[in-house]
Amino acid sequence: MAKLLFSFGIVTDIQYADIENRKQHLFRAAPQKLAKCVTDWNQHDLAFAVQLGDIVQGNGEKTLGELERVLEILSDFQKPMYHVIGNHCLEISLPVLLEKFGYPAPYYDFAVKGFRFIVLHSMEVSIFSRPKDGAAYRIAEATLEKNPELKFWTGALSVSQIEWLRAKLAFAKSQNERVIILNHLPAHEETTDGESGLLWNAQELRELLAESGCVIAHLNGHHHPGGYAKDRSVHFATLEALLDSPEHGTAYGIVEVYEDRLLLKGMGSLTSRELGF
User: Fold this and answer.
1) Top-level CATH class of 4-276?
2) Whole-angstrom Cα distance, residue 22 to residue 173?
């Protein structure tokens, strides 16, 4: 049997806000659900944990305080915590968000025991881009005008981020590393729906990941019910939202990394999956 190399925690779409519930969105219950998650993570030997974006909902002038409350809960986790930026996260300005996360840039990478984790910023080109007279915002406006089927609450990787990713994948390949992509927006149509939408340049990203020969999985949030697809050798998994789990339940996971597979152990409403490679 293949050897367990390491494990990590994963959660997405916490989306805390001190506002009334909307259908299945239980905003005020998010902190207690997240606290359960962190308590459980601390009982396992994890290398790190990651939240896949939409850490807050956005609630006007209260949003920053709500972010700080979530980060305080996550600070109880005893190992490194990594953050992905989602569309709702940008209710807080990107510079402030990066300061709170302690990051110099919104996309980055790190390596653990022969696996390289690449964190993407799928909202870099979007109508949330600032300044409004900047290139990213103008490209987003033009893209939406030419492609009215796209959702205005999603976005794209910039040309420079794609080139950065290409270089990171080439380096990983040269080091015989396997790569796991951590993103917020779905990059495969079968892992989302017409309402949630997906990354605007999803097809370009899928081609790059497949051609690299070293990517095994793309893990993301955004589409709260979750989803799964496989494109050539790459697994695309959308994780279910913590926000939408039952009031006294939760939704998070622990990913066990083996020499030949990822074993996602879902807790609460999160689906368990075995992703072989």
Assistant:
1) alpha beta
2) 45
pTM of the complete model beyond 0.90 = yes
**Tens-digit pLDDT profile for residues 26-80:** 999 999 999 999 999 999 999 999 999 999 999 999 999 999 999 999 999 999 9
Whether 1 shows a pLDDT value over 90: the answer reads: no
Q: Closest Cα partner for 86 from 183, 231, 211?
A: 183
User: Over the stretch 213-263, which tens digit does the pLDDT of each residue have?
Assistant: 999 999 999 999 999 999 999 999 999 999 999 988 999 999 999 999 999
Q: Tokens representing 70?
A: 């979530």
Task: Read off the tokens for 41.
Answer: 């993570």
Buried b (16+ CB within 10 A) or exposed e, 170-201: eebbeeebbbbbbbbbbbbeebbeeebbbbbb
Half-sphere exposure of residue 256: CA atoms within 13 angstroms, side-chain side: 13
**What counts of helices (H) and strands (E) characterise the chain?**
6, 12
